[in-house]
Write a structure and sequence with these properties.
This protein is 28% helix and 23% strand. By secondary structure, it is α+β, with helices and mostly antiparallel strands. A 7-stranded antiparallel beta sheet has the order 16-13-15-14-18-19-17. Helix 9 (232-245) packs across helix 12 (343-359).
């Protein structure tokens, strides 16, 4: 997800690579470059989203740090390949750096964990589980761990342990000119600040090291619940009450709106994860049990699938298959809320979503997700200590993730999702005076301030880092920080 150009000319490599584009792969004697005729091209190069996507003329599969510091062409690095933004379309016919050979995850004697730049979430949780440790991780096994971290790193355990960046201790990174440096609180601390929340702008992260936490019993309560349509307002009211009363730090909740292509109707699901205590998890889930028909807003729970799973299973249970399938069109519009989204607006959104998918069934794999966790661990870290701009500014995040194939409905799908996002962002709906989005979910049509924060000091600090570490703007494909202050306008 990170562009890399080396400024020094390596003319012989460029000439050989360019002349090989129509030839066989790999390119002999020139590191690990491969042309589109490579039999494994699609396996290595295809990304999660085909919408507004970059294109590639060569694939570079380095084996060592030294190889990563070579080259003179525009690169876009790929870990899990899930980095989404419509801004990525600016990279056309570039060279993909595939970090498949950097997937090693090592739990160190001091219980820190070192994660290779190409490691997936499943690689991380498996190594931690085997060592009896844990860390905030994402919800899907195939997503690249490093790319997720660079935007902040939300996850099901953030109520306990904060964001992924809050546990980050050390980074090794290749810069635009091929120089490999380290960053931490003690070394290149300015860059370390920027990497935690705006990290896609400065280089290719080769490895990162994190603090980890005791896994206790290494198990987590997990429940998926499905309800009748007329239960939505009741479920929303319970969700709102639980957030306002304060979720336990060990808990996380996720409400999703989806679509049943067989019945051609929308459906909604509530997911509950509770760390290390099955009894408390069941008690939390019981808030969503069926109620009396005489209730003001009755709930009819059609099914509940609950289990007490291992930490290694957390990013695999309930994962939508579409998240780990590559090559579909994906269009995301996020919003955050300082309070629970207005209930009537949420009901209207559900109805609008159902009607829209009925009119455009090609998008029936789309999901609207609303996630919440206790914010206290995020608030325990000073707002100024990292580039992550959302501490104290949200309690609920939404991800309107549209999925489809073909081009016939593209304009309508993007337009509906953008309008829905704008509705959720209204102050009377979200409680926020302006739009704030999590950069890893950002579409690219939002203002830069919505993605990186509205404060002038943030703009000055981020632009200063861009000038120092990416002075030619070579890492500009993903939500680019401007090189000049005027660019924030």
């Amino acid at each position: 997800m990170h562009s890399l150009k080396t400024f020094q000319a390596l003319a012989s490599l460029a000439t050989t690579a360019a002349s090989a584009l129509s030839g066989d792969a790999p390119i002999p004697g020139n590191l690990s470059f491969y042309t589109p005729s490579w039999p494994d091209w699609d396996q290595y190069v295809t990304r999660w989203s085909a919408y507004e996507a970059p294109t590639f003329s060569l694939a570079f599969v380095p084996k060592t740090d030294k190889e990563l510091s070579q080259g003179n062409m525009t690169y876009l690095a790929k870990g899990g390949g899930h980095g989404y933004s419509t801004t990525l379309v600016t990279d056309q016919n570039v060279v993909q750096i595939n970090l498949e050979n950097f997937r090693e995850v090592t739990v160190n004697p001091d219980n820190t964990v070192t994660v290779g730049g190409g490691a997936r979430m499943l690689d991380v949780v498996t190594a931690l589980y085997n060592a009896g440790r844990e860390l905030t991780v994402g919800s899907y096994p195939c997503v690249g761990a490093t790319g997720a971290m660079l935007g902040g790193g939300l996850g099901r355990l953030q109520g306990l342990h904060g964001l992924m960046i809050d546990a980050l201790q050390h980074v090794k990174i290749a810069l635009w000119n091929g120089t490999i440096i380290e960053a931490s609180e003690d070394t290149n601390s300015d860059l370390f600040w920027g990497l935690r929340g705006a990290g896609h702008n400065f280089g290719v992260v080769i490895e990162s090291t994190y603090e980890t936490f005791p896994g206790e019993d290494n198990r987590h309560y997990y429940a998926d619940m499905v309800f009748t349509d007329d239960s939505l307002e009741g479920v929303l009211n319970v969700y709102k009450r639980l957030i306002e009363d304060g979720l336990d730090p060990a808990a996380s909740l996720a409400l999703s709106y989806a679509f049943n292509p067989q019945s051609m109707n929308p459906l909604f699901n509530m997911n509950v994860v509770y760390a290390h205590n099955e009894e408390k998890g069941r008690a939390l889930a019981s808030n969503f049990a069926s109620t009396s028909e005489n209730a003001t807003h009755p709930i009819t729970r059609v099914s509940v699938n609950e289990s007490y799973i291992t930490f290694a299973e957390v990013p695999t249970r309930g994962s939508s298959d579409i998240i780990c399938q590559r090559g579909h069109n994906q269009d995301i519009h996020p919003a955050t809320a300082r309070q629970f989204f207005d209930t009537r607006a949420m009901v209207n959104l559900y109805e609008s979503f159902g009607s829209f998918i009925q009119e455009h069934p090609v998008a029936n794999g789309s999901v609207l997700l609303f996630e919440a966790a206790n914010p206290q661990a995020l608030l325990a870290v000073p707002d100024t200590s990292t580039a992550f701009p959302l501490r104290g500014r949200y309690i609920l995040s939404s991800v309107l993730s549209m999925t489809w194939d073909g081009d016939s409905s593209t304009e309508a799908i993007d337009s509906w999702a953008a309008r829905a996002r704008d509705t959720l962002a209204r102050p009377e709906v979200s409680g926020s005076d302006r739009l704030y989005v999590y950069v890893n979910y950002a579409n690219g049509d939002e203002s830069l301030s919505a993605r990186y924060g509205y404060e002038q000091w943030r703009h000055e600090k981020l632009t200063g880092l861009k000038q120092r570490y990416d002075p030619h703007g070579f890492f500009n494909a993903y939500h680019a920080i401007p090189l000049e202050m005027s660019g924030w306008n």
